[in-house]
């Protein structure tokens, strides 16, 4: 089976027909023989056609997009998509950036973007930890309350009534592990 240029085109709304047509034209001109298209915002929870494209591509293929923002919501999203492609042995080509992960420079660029995303995430987590420490020092932070442990009294009452762990799980909306943990902590 020979390598395939697989295109992915996306517009944010169905009203952007011209933008979608331009992407489709450019992808076809680039040699894409299979194209997945989507007309929805990238902030939508799921992008079924992108997922289908990632599932469809095979080792040696290249996923082609006209612009980075048509593919990824963020650098972290790009890194995640690139990770899926790399595991499958699939290249990524972003036409507007002349970025192609089948080249050493393309791999370097994606790795740089990934490193920057990781650095940004670490800075964000550090600021979050500092904010929590400050809030705790000022007595304004209690943290997340464990939800299952708040139901310990109800768990023990139902257990005393002979209810099974499954019955308790369904009635209280907590996990079986939480039921067993509460029983173990409160028996003795």
How do the helices and strands line up, and which of them pair or pack?
Blueprint: E1 5-11, H1 17-29, E2 34-39, H2 48-56, E3 62-65, H3 75-88, E4 91-94, E5 99-100, H4 104-137, H5 152-160, H6 165-172, H7 176-186
Parallel strand pairs: 1-2, 1-3, 3-4
Antiparallel strand pairs: 4-5
Helix pairs in contact: 3-4, 5-7
Key attributes of the depicted protein:
Rossmann fold, Arc Repressor Mutant, subunit A, 12% strand, 52% helix, elongated, alpha/beta, 2 domains, 5-stranded mixed beta sheet
Provide a quick synopsis of the model:
It is built from seven helices and five strands, in the order βαβαβαββαααα.
Q: Largest sheet, if any? A: 5 strands, mixed
For the record, the CATH architecture of the largest domain stands as: 3-Layer(aba) Sandwich
Q: By helix and strand content, what is the structural category?
A: alpha/beta
Tell me the CATH superfamily of the largest domain: Resolvase, N-terminal catalytic domain
Poorly predicted segments: none
Q: Provide the domain count.
A: 2
* Average pLDDT number: 87
Question: What value does the Rg take, in angstroms?
Answer: 25 Å
User: How widely separated are the two ends?
Assistant: 65 Å
Can you put this structure into words, describing what you see?
With 188 residues, the chain is α/β, with parallel strands linked by helices. The chain has two domains: 5-114, Rossmann fold (3-Layer(aba) Sandwich); 149-186, Arc Repressor Mutant, subunit A. It contains seven helices and five strands. The protein has helices at residues 17-29, 48-56, 75-88, 104-137, 152-160, 165-172, 176-186; strands spanning 5-11, 34-39, 62-65, 91-94, 99-100. It has a five-stranded mixed β-sheet, sandwiched between helices. Helix 3 (75-88) packs across helix 4 and helix 5 crosses helix 7.
């Amino acid at each position: 089976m020979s390598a395939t240029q697989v295109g992915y085109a996306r517009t944010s709304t169905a009203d952007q027909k011209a933008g979608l047509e331009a992407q489709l034209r450019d992808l076809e001109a680039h040699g894409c023989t299979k194209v997945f298209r989507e007309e929805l915002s990238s902030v939508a929870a799921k992008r079924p056609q992108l997922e289908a494209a990632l599932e469809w591509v095979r080792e040696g293929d290249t996923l082609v997009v006209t612009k980075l923002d048509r593919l990824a919501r963020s650098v972290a999203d790009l890194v995640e998509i690139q990770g899926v492609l790399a595991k499958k042995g699939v290249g990524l080509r972003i036409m507007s950036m002349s970025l192609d992960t089948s080249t050493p420079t393309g791999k370097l660029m994606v790795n740089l973007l990934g490193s920057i995303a990781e650095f940004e995430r670490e800075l964000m987590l550090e600021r979050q930890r500092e904010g929590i420490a400050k809030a705790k020092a000022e007595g304004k932070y209690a943290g997340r309350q464990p939800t299952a442990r708040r139901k310990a009294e109800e768990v023990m009452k139902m257990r005393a009534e002979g209810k099974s762990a499954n019955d308790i799980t369904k009635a209280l909306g907590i996990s079986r592990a939480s039921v067993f943990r509460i029983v173990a902590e409160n028996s003795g």
